[in-house]
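Batch 3, record 17
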Amino acid sequence: MIRGLALALAAAGAAQACELPGGPAQKLESAAHTVVYRTQPLRVGEHFAVDFAVCPAPEAVKVDAWMPDHRHGMNYKPTIAELGGGRYRAEGLMFHMAGRWEFAFEVRAGGKTERLAHSVRLE
Amino acid sequence: MRRGLLFLLFAAAQAAQAFTDAEIRAVASHGPWPPAFKPDPSNRVSGNKQAIELGERLFFERRLSVNGEHSCSRCHLPERNWTDGEARARALALVDRNTPSLANVRLQRWFGWDGAHDSLWSQSMRPILDARELGSSAAQVAKLVREDADLTCRYRKVFGAPLPDDEKVLVDVAKALAAFQETLMSGRTAFDEFRDALVKGDKAGIAKYPEPARQGLRIFIGKGSCNTCHVGPAFTNGEFHDTGIPFFVEPGRVDPGRHEGIKKLLASRYNLLGQYSDDPQRSGAIGTKHVVLEHRNFGEFKTPSLRNLALTAPYMHNGRLATLRDVVNHYSNISPDRLHSDGEAILKPLKLTEQETRDLVAFLESLQDGGGNYRRKAFAGDCR
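Prediction for the assembled complex:
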C-alpha cells in the first residue's frame, strides 16, 4: 500500500496536454517533458505494470526503481512496449522489500536525458 | 467470575492500546490464513484429485531413485514439517544445502534456495535427476511408469493419453508430484488468532495471545525490521538476500546461491518460458522473463517462510544455525563486514537484550500450527 507520495521534480514547465485515458493518473513535469502514469496496485513482492504517456514524445524512455536507503535496485528489468501516440506500458517491475523506493522515468530527447522521479513508501 | 472477566477485559484493552494504527496495519498484512487455493496455470493437473493421489504415491516411491532406496520423503519427512532435521541433506551423497520445508510451497515464486526453478513441477524434477539425491533419469522414471500396471493406469487417468516419450513422462510425473505438494499447507496458529482478533477489535481474543509473543511481534515489525523481507501471510517476499552466512561449502569451494540460480533458470528448457508449460499465455513467467543477473546475487539465498519455523531446525541455507535463538542472535550481532561491499545495505546488528531475544523467539514459536496434520493414505493397487 502506498503510504506517501512525494514528487521530486526538476522544475515546472512544459505545460501541455498530456493525457492517459482510463482513470486517475499521476503527473511528473520537468522543463522539457511531462510524464503521466498509472501503476497497478503496489504490493511488496508482487509484479506490477505501469501505463504512462510522455509529452512531447521522446526518442527513448526507460523505467527503473531504486531503494536509496538499502543501496539496491529491483531484481527485475522491466520491458517497455510503445503503444503509439506517446503512450507506453512497462511490465515486469517489482518492489521486493518494504520501505522507500525511488521510482524514475529516464526520458531521452535531443541528445539529452532527463530523469523524472518520485518516492513511494511501501508498508 | 465477574472480577476475572473484568480483569480479562482490562488486560485486553491495555493490549489493544499497545498497538498503534501503523502496527495494526503491519500485523494485519501477515494474514489472513490460510490463503485460497489458486491452481498453477503452468500445470494442467494442478488441483486435480487423481493427480494429487498419483503425486502422493510417487512422493513416497523409492523406485524413482537409481538404487531403489530413496524417495522424495527421504529428506522431506511429514513429521518434521517436510524437512529432515539435518544441517545439509543427504541421499545418495551429501548435498550443499539444508532441506527446505514443503509446507506452503505452492505460494512460492521461486523454488530452491537459489531459485533455479520457476515452477513447483520443474523444481520437482531436480532431485530426481541430481546424482547426489535420487540419481535417476527420464528413461528410468518412464520405464517405471510403463512397467508398473497401477502407475500406468493412474498416469492414463490423470493425463488421459497413452504414455509419450520419456522426457514427457518425467515432466508429467513432476506435475503430479507438484499437484500433491500443493496440498501441503500449514494450519492456523496462535499468531493467526491474534491477528484476526486485532483486525476485528476482539479484545478477548487479543488478550489470549501470550505477552512474550506480543512483545516479540512488536520487535519483529519495529526494532528488528524483520518484516522488511519477511512480508505477507507466508512471511516471505520470495526473493533473495545475503544475510551474512558464510557461503563456503568447504575450503576452496563456495555456494554462489542466486547468482548460479539465475543462470540455471534461464538455461533450463523446463522453465516457464519453455515448451513444457501448460499455460499458453505464459502468465506466470513474468519473473523469468524479467529477472536480471547482477554481481550482488552472489551468495544470496531465498528468504524462507517463517510458518512452522520451530519445526524446521537447523536453520539458514546450509543449516549452520542450530536453534531459533541462534538465528535471532545472528541478526542481533551480525557484522556488516561479513556482507557484500557492493550488496544491499539492509542488515545491521539489532543489539537485542536478553529479554528481547526471548520475546522474539516466543513470537517466532507462535507461528507454529502444531504440525503433524498430514496422514499418508493407503493405496490400493486396483486402478482400472
